[in-house]
């Protein structure tokens, strides 16, 4: 129970009565982290810990890993194809291609000055938000700019 509480599983006694298919992806990931912590490791190997999770759940898992690292003083070896995630959680990045290291270095060095085309390609796959534009969009042809009364009643904006 203590380990499930440490990985922020709500009501762990209730969750223990469930089958794995009854848990969300984020909950399953937390259970796996708790299992890994049971042996009190010095190094936690996290192989794609955030793949197939939505962005909000991803952030929660990354926060949990950082929290556990700080509390327990363990090292984390993060294996991921997502350099956006790697640069948030890592001190160093080692880029592999076809089973061999093609580049290694401090996070800032790899992100700011990638040495290989492969690393540049991986970095270009990281989503980037564009500038925020608060200018209202012009109504498209065939659509009126009037407010829909059904939306106004619910407080929603068109």
Please tag this protein with its features.
158 residues; 4 strands; alpha+beta; two-stranded antiparallel sheet
Explained architecture:
This protein is of the alpha+beta class and 158 residues long. The protein is built from 8 helices and 4 strands. The strands form 2 sheets. The protein has a two-stranded parallel sheet with strand order 1-2. Strands 3-4 form a two-stranded antiparallel ribbon. Helix 4 (55-72) links the parallel strand 1 (43-47) and strand 2 (75-79). The radius of gyration is 22 Å and the shape is globular. Residues 154-158 have low confidence and may be disordered.
- Seen as an oligomer or otherwise, the chain set is single chain
Count of DSSP helices? 8
Helix content: 40-55%
Percent strand: 5-15%
Rg of Cα set: 22 Å
Topology:
Elements: H1 2-6, H2 12-15, H3 25-37, E1 43-47, H4 55-72, E2 75-79, H5 83-89, E3 92-97, E4 100-106, H6 107-112, H7 117-124, H8 149-154
Parallel strand pairs: 1-2
Antiparallel strand pairs: 3-4
In a few lines, what is going on in this structure?
The protein has helices spanning 2-6, 12-15, 25-37, 55-72, 83-89, 107-112, 117-124, 149-154; strands at 43-47, 75-79, 92-97, 100-106. The chain is α+β, with helices and mostly antiparallel strands and 158 residues long. The strands form 2 sheets. A two-stranded parallel sheet has the order 1-2.
């Amino acid at each position: 129970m203590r380990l499930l509480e440490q990985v922020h599983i709500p009501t762990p006694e209730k969750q223990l009565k469930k089958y794995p298919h009854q848990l969300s992806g984020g909950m399953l990931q937390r259970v796996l982290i708790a299992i890994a912590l049971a042996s009190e490791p010095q190094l936690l190997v996290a192989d794609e810990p955030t793949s197939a999770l939505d962005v909000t759940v991803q952030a929660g898992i990354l926060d949990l890993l950082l929290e556990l690292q700080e509390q327990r003083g363990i090292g984390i070896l993060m294996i991921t194809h997502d350099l956006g995630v790697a640069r948030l959680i890592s001190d160093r990045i080692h880029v592999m291609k076809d089973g061999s290291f093609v580049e290694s270095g401090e996070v800032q060095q790899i992100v700011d000055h990638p040495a290989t085309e492969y690393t540049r390609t991986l970095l270009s796959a990281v989503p980037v938000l564009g500038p925020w534009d608060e200018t209202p969009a012009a109504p498209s042809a065939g659509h009126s700019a009037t407010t829909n009364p059904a939306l106004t009643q619910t407080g929603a904006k068109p």
